[in-house]
Amino acid sequence: INPPVMMASHTGKGRGALPCRLPPPSSRSRWMPTAVAAVAAVAPTSAPPPAPKLAPTPPDVHVAKAHVARKTSMLASSTAERLKFEVEYGRRAGTSDNTYILHDEKDEKVALVDVPDDAFAGDFERALGRADVACVLLTRFDPKAARALFSVARRHYNTCDGEPLPVFASKPAADALAEAAEKANAAECVEPVVVKLGDAVDVFGDGTRLLSTVPLPTPRWPYATAFHDATTNVAFTGKFFSTHVEIQSDRDAKVSWEKALPEHRHYFECMLAPVDSHAETALNRLGAKPLADSGYWPLEGLAASSKQGGGINFNQLVRKLTLQGGGTAAAAAAASNEGPRVVAGYRTATARPVALFAPLHGPPSFGYTTQLLDTYRKYTSAAAEQRKACSVGILYASAYGHTASLAQAIARGVQRSGLGIEMVNCEILSASEIDEVMERVEGFAIGSPTLAGNMPTPVATALGRVVSTPGNKTKPCGVFGSFGWSGEAVDLLNDKLMDGGFKSAFKPIRCKFSPTTKMLMTCEESGRALARQVLEKRREEAKKGGRAMPGKESAAPPAFTTPIAQAVGRVIGTLCVVTCRRGDASAALVASWVSQASFAPPGLTIAVKDDRAGEPLLQVGDRFGLSVLAEGAERDALKYFLKSFEPGVDRIAGYSGIKMLRGDEDEKKKKKPPPKKKAEDVDVTPDVDPELDVVEEAQDDEDAFAVLEEAASWCGCVVKSRMECGDHAVMYAEVLVGGLLDDSATPSLHYRKTGMSY
Description:
This protein is an alpha/beta fold and 758 residues long. Helix 11 crosses helix 15.
């Protein structure tokens, strides 16, 4: 392994340099440009500087206040917009960054659990007001969520005679915080305090509020930590049990389990299913034991009894459900009034009583704590079984989180195809551990950022181990990476693998800066392509060996010959083409499982298989065009849309028979030529003849629907609800506009002999 090199500048020079080591969060300040580092070195540090300008605020940002438990409230900084272009935000339900406020017994001081993203900082500070913050506990630390923290710290520093604000976090988070504070010239205002398993935080220093520490690291979240409040039995779980849902008011802090379940499923599939073994370890370490006799909180029953007693008081309901831990926590620490501090060697029972999960994103688990925990265990077990049957390895390192986002999207594509995932952060795992992962997986993708014109040392080490093992050469593979200047690392990865005789399942993915919707779609499609090649390889090996595919009983009759399959196959569908667009991404697919679902408003249902490329663009709120194919005129469309496409190909733009429609007015309105100008006003150019009529084309904007010209009819729809059904997702869509394109045509029907295939 070549020794690490220091990056002296960001000029893009250094092509062909030695592999550079990706430094840990605690030491990445060493990678600052020399000039910047020099300026920082001579900057005065005797007094805290004024707070920097806040980041641009997304549209429709608001902060909702809600009561959580005794002496515990929540500030949910929310937006309806997609805060980041990552797969976890794919359901387009908005998001919230939750800050939990712990009040002391005299209501004089507060402690904060987590702070919001920089985009919410201004609104959060206004909602927090002039509260006297004693300390902050972080379940995670992100440099992009530091502005609000440093603002609170500066105010504490100025009002407490130069005393820094204690911030309790795991070691990786504390190291990253120290580095960020140094760069922001706020090091004197912040005192990072490392907490570990077995520690408790006495947030007010008087023994009245102790929060035990539970580290929950994963490859994507090495800093993750949960805190359990023994006074209220609330578990502040950070990224775990989160969902990306907007919280508009205190009413949105309580949602039904039926509404919360699809959001939790999507979040788990995106963020935790690829690291199921770490998720299982985290659940076991947390040791949550929901506080309910029957396994379900009787929220509606309490509400009914409250009505009989003269009205519903939501805060009283919460207090009844949030069982109090008694004086155990208070007795664990002496009332020293020394201020916030760590109580080392704090021991609790293996099972922690939990009345409520309070996550970083989305509503707390009011009324469904048991269901949520059981669902997490069920999802974790299913992902583990999938991984053991057949899995794909995703190896990566990430400097700013962008390459990790690409890895997450590729993993989702693989998983939606029915295969398991082994997620490998090359910065964390040792070379021998990487060897063990590569021995288990049947395909892999490797990704890297570009630093100083090269890949970081952890990726170079992992690549060397992969290439040097002869058995890996038969495994389908792919490369990906993000960069800010030239992106040499992706080319180096691809060249090394191709020279070694590896077979690539998809073209190298190169992402400049942060990923867009189209880039994430390309990554998901690439994951599906990788999964297809892995499955094809398994089929060939099974055929050569004269045995059935693993996981299938060779003596069992094929599923499509059973009476049930033959009966279901007699259900007839209409052949349609679905076209969907969102931002810079688009997709098109053939669908035959389409049916009318309502009269008023006119609505229909459409079923789409999980591994279809257009499935991510059919979330609630997404719009799509539906072209009903005409009998006798469907051949060209089926031939085109049923073929295999390379990941990232624009299926709509590649078909010549597409036109953009907005509604009935498109067919009724005839474009009129503009009025002719006087001869002296005409500016004649070689490319324009002023005597020709000008026909304006329909603008390709968000309001238009892509429709096939040869279709019998078309509908413009918006997805109103969505339900996961086995290996398909069923969307209910309201028809906004539509019309006949050929009133003499009849729909093309799809006849099948079996219900087990299309």
